[in-house]
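Below is how a single chain appears once it has passed through the pipeline. First comes the sequence as given, then the structure the pipeline wrote out for it. We keep one example in the README because the format questions we get most often are answered faster by looking than by reading.
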Amino acid sequence: METGAEPQQRLDRLVSMVASTMVADVCSIYLTRGGLHELFATQGLSPSAVHNTRLKLGEGLVGLVAEAAQPLNLADAQHHERFAFKPETGEEPFNSFLGVPIVRSERTFGVLVVQNQVSRLYGEDEVEALQTIAMVLAEMVASGAFGDLTGLAEVEAVPSRPELLSGRSFSDGICIGTAVLHEPHAPLGRVIADDPVKEEERLNTALSHVRRALEEMLEGDPGRISGVSREVLETFLMLANDPSWEAKLRQGVRAGLSADAAVERVRGEHRAKFNATRDQYLKERLHDLEDLDNRLLRALAGVEAGAAQALPDDAILIARELGPAELLDYGARLKGVALEEGANTAHAAIVARALAIPMVGSLHGLLSRVEAGDRIVIDGEHGEARLRPEAAVVHSYKQRIDLRSARVEEFARLRNIPPVTQDGERVTLLLNAGLALDVHHLDEAGAEGIGLFRTEFQFMVSETLPRLESQTMLYRDVLDAAGLRPVTFRTLDLGGDKVLPYVAAEREENPALGWRAVRIGLDRPALLRYQLRALISAAASRRLRIMFPLVTTVSEFDAARALVDRELEWCRKNGRTQPSLVEVGVMVEAPALAFSIPDLKGRADFISIGTNDLMQYFFAADRGNARVSERYDILSAPALRLLKRIRDDADVAGLQVSICGEAAGRPLEAMAFIALGFRRLSMPASGIGPVKRLILSMEVHAVERALSRLMSRNRPSIRDELREFAVAEGYAL
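Resulting structure:
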């Protein structure tokens, strides 16, 4: 590479050396250019075929290697069903075929091939050698080592072109910023080892470091578990001791790669296979292996896992998936979030909405198309991400951001106007909150109180169990900020994807239906009583509203309420100032409780319908699984009939009832809920302005008639028809 020859001559010399070293009759390099696999260099095929032989994506054996992102070793290539004959190459005599993908990060952008006339399968050492060469070749192409080689500028080893990825909106908003990888790995640095023996020693030291760190986590250092269950840690440790993984790493080092490059090559294989497979189990295992690759790269670079990143002012986080605690760790430092997977009802999305951070998810291929430092636009209105956008596109988005600011000003003007419909129906709009800073949105949004304060977030961001004083202080600050406006505190709703870093989680086949929420509180009453004592202490001489999550039976509610009475008695006996009024309610999230509302009469003071969980259980569709979470629609006849039944039963039982969920903050859904008879809606701060604007423009009785007519048709969704009605009536959606 350091010779003064022309770029094509250097590439030709490379294939000649590979053919000679591997005793191959043919060595060829195909690079992906303009949607085709183009022959860029060859030793053994017709020289005139270079830059003239092209295969469509997926065509031929070369296309198969690129598509599968793994080696293909054949003794009789010409009789393979995918063999594509190109007469200009003159490859008729060659029977043996070995092709390996040229991969960098998750991008397969070429194929390196050797062929022989003799029919034989290449040995494992030969396959390993060719993979090593392909990895070095990938780095050389990406680094520009071949200069102005004909057509190389159009080979995208590193993504550089503007791209549009379409996914789903998880949190509204538009932002423009700089891509930051959630799981960055250390820079590759050297590719070729100066001293293979020392490189293997470096690899051994790093492997020992990673394994020791995992063992220490399992041995009981709870502060380092960071929300990962014991089973996952055990799986990581098992994979970290996997002989085949270690053997691949050692083969790379012994072939002359640096330890870092050997790990990067294996990591690239894992990522490419991840993209190629559709099997969910295999995807999870490959994701675990990639996590280990990242840990090992950090160990080689001397970077501690979990070390805080220095973020740019306009940081947009890029991740495959994200938990709520991980997002809270970043907090307000982020301008936006883009996820390759995820679901808009997952708790990370709820946190993003609470923090007013635009989030887009289900962006297929995101991690393979974005590099750290890339310019990126997150469009939370349309569920899109634009990578490396042109100046004109950025200008257009800046105009949209200005228009959104104008809408915010419009909503601000409505802040002090009561939400009353055209025919005089008054609706109470409340705020969903989970962080102390959320409470300050009350005045900004014009909310009349907090219909749901999620208390678990304080526990999730702490490295240890929050002390009584810490809990009391938070609840008191929330009540102080709310003033005379009501605040409904939901007790700890843990489990599922909300795991405490200092509590070892038990493996469950279906955690959403497992040991979570009030079930934990009733089985571990000391934890629940501890929180109730903090709430009662914080509400001294003030009104206190407590709500229990995921109650499935009336007896569960009775047991939970008994703990409240017990703590109130403790408060009285110890001469503490009691709340002026205590109201105890329940979230209706389980269908079993939805059909038990009449039995709550005289027991509960209020109920609140948690639409997110109620709908996932009602439709048997995991809200965190993107493949099924979008299969149901709350604006369908069965779902709306269930909500109406709850509403009617609550009226008969004399219970105050509210809708509390993400759906309440969307104008179309809010219009349907109001038509069903609901007059209390609790939602994210961003939803209050749009919903209030809708309320001021709508006429309840007209919507009631339209909704009744549409529900009688029993369709999977009446969303489109309902929207058409609202638009025709001139309602402000």
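Residues 221-229 have pLDDT under 50 and may be disordered.

See the next section for the split statistics.
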